[in-house]
Design brief:
Distance between the termini: 58 Å
Strand content: 5-15%
CATH architecture of the largest domain: 2-Layer Sandwich
Radius of gyration: 23 Å
Number of domains: 2
Structural class: alpha/beta
Shape: globular
Strand order of the largest sheet: 12-13-11-10-16-17
CATH topology of the largest domain: Nucleotidyltransferase, domain 5
Number of helices: 19
Number of strands: 17
Length: 479
């Protein structure tokens, strides 16, 4: 219900703004939080297709949900279901077919848990939407939208090579599941027009509605990642590293993912759960504001004299950390500036090491997300990856990507297809002052620090060798 009310409020705000000529809207698409799911009864499609413009949206949806909760990517309660699915189909098959091993936050294991824990609720479920296809269903005349391959590939259910539901995985997940899933359609599919609810209630035109996608696939477009050699880094609640792939090469460690891309190719992605929230914890622990946080980075030496902080405040996705807890190696908890540098260096070094499977050649990084405004963090990104870093005026790359996808699909529908470089031209433009080149001296420093960080991680997680001799040797080396 909250998803629906948020959409209604946003559309009302757009209509009331006054600065936007609604009649100019030709096509609409959207980006929604990936891995979230919405469970609907048999009356949902008919109800969504016949919404009354005279009544608020939420008042018309009281009986369309078979489940009151919408599990999202932060729900890691499905380890048992992941293990059961993996036992049935095999981890290698899961990763090869879907691009990912079984992940707790993915929709397939979430569905299995619901079917096991509430079989009556599952029996009442006629359609299991992703958040993206549910919100598109609220917009479109017809009321039952498809899901696009980009978002569907984050479910552990879709065959990457065919962009269709993988029969064996669907059967291994829950009984009679396939009929409950939306159909999969290409990201450029025009699925209908805005329904009478939006036209009559708010004055929107009957614009074409393009299939929605998840925030990660939309960000790929919105950050301009449409060619090899360019890496996207989103510094948000969780940090993500993502890249364009021509072919679906998977992560041998099992931590990373391959999703379908709205461009028709693929995207590689690795997620680090302890992102901005972890940076905020360190900031608050030392009573800093963000200006003071940046000042601490300026005043401390690259490499932090070999001292390492592993910032796993919460259980981590990459690398897999079951029990949260910060770990320090050679780092005094009372030294605020060193701990500030320690968390940022640890995060970026982890990004670099755990994304090598995406390819070693990185010539440019496109930085997005709230923390991308911090120039000092971007300098560390440039030095660790040995690549120039750019920031963009449009901070919300997922929303921009959704708009550009609508533009692309609309021109395609009109018989004048545009290549993706033409689609993003003039929109995905780096800020003139944002080009941050790597510092060759610092690149060498981080090349020497990387094995220390890897040794600390191995020691903390797997009982590897003592990393303190490496720390001591680095501290003795010339500055």
């Amino acid at each position: 219900m909250m998803w629906a009310e948020a959409l209604d409020r946003m559309m009302a705000a757009l209509a009331a703004d006054g600065s936007l000529d609604l009649s100019r809207i030709a096509a609409v698409s959207g980006s929604a939080q990936q891995h979230g799911s919405v469970y609907c009864t048999a009356v949902a499609a008919e109800r969504l297709a016949s919404l009354d413009p005279a009544r608020p949206l939420s008042s018309q949806l009281t009986d369309v949900f078979s489940r009151s909760d919408s599990p999202i990517w932060m729900d890691a309660s499905t380890s048992r279901q992941c293990a059961a699915i993996t036992a049935l189909v095999g981890e290698d098959t899961l990763q090869r077919v879907t691009g990912s091993r079984a992940f707790e936050r993915f929709t397939g294991p979430q569905i299995r848990k619901y079917a096991e824990m509430d079989p009556e609720g599952y029996a009442r479920t006629s359609r299991i939407h992703l958040v993206s296809s549910f919100l598109a269903s609220l917009l479109v005349a017809g009321g039952d939208a498809p899901v696009d391959p980009g978002d569907a590939s984050g479910m552990n259910l879709m065959d990457l090579n065919t962009a269709s539901w993988a029969e064996g995985l669907v059967h291994a997940t829950a009984p009679d599941l396939e009929r409950r899933l939306p159909v999969v359609r290409p990201s450029s599919t025009v699925i209908g027009t805005l329904s009478a609810y939006w036209v009559q209630r708010y004055g929107f035109p009957a614009a074409r509605v393009v299939a929605w996608s998840g925030d990660n696939p939309c960000s790929l477009v919105g950050a301009g990642l449409i060619e090899p050699g360019v890496r996207g880094v989103s510094l948000g609640t969780s940090d993500t590293v993502f890249a364009y792939e021509q072919e679906p090469a998977t992560d041998p460690s099992g931590s990373g993912h391959v999703f379908a891309s709205p461009t028709g190719q693929f995207m590689a992605l690795t997620c680090f759960k302890n992102g901005s929230l972890a940076r905020e914890r360190i900031r608050d622990d030392y009573s800093l504001d963000w200006s003071g946080f940046a000042d601490a980075l300026r005043k401390t030496p690259p490499g932090n004299r070999g001292r390492v902080l592993l910032p796993w405040f919460e259980p981590e996705i990459t690398p897999p950390v079951a029990d949260g807890g910060i770990r320090r190696y050679g780092l005094d908890p009372s030294d605020g500036p060193a701990n500030v540098r320690g968390i940022v260096e640890a995060q970026v070094l982890s990004m670099a090491r755990h994304t090598r499977w995406m390819g070693d050649h990185v010539r440019r990084i496109h930085a997005t997300g709230g923390a991308a405004v911090n120039q000092e963090i971007l300098h560390i990104l440039a030095d660790v990856f040995n690549a120039e870093v750019y920031r963009f005026e449009a901070g919300n790359s997922a929303a921009l990507g959704a708009a550009l996808r609508a533009f692309h699909a609309d021109t395609l529908r009109q018989g004048r297809p545009l290549r993706w470089p033409e689609v993003i031209k003039g929109f995905v433009v780096p800020l003139e002052t944002s080009g941050i080149p790597p510092n060759p001296e610092h690149v060498q420093t981080y090349a020497a620090v990387a094995p220390i960080h890897a040794a600390c991680e191995s020691h903390a997680l797997y009982g590897g060798g003592d990393p303190f001799p490496l720390i001591a040797a680095f501290a003795r080396s010339p500055a």
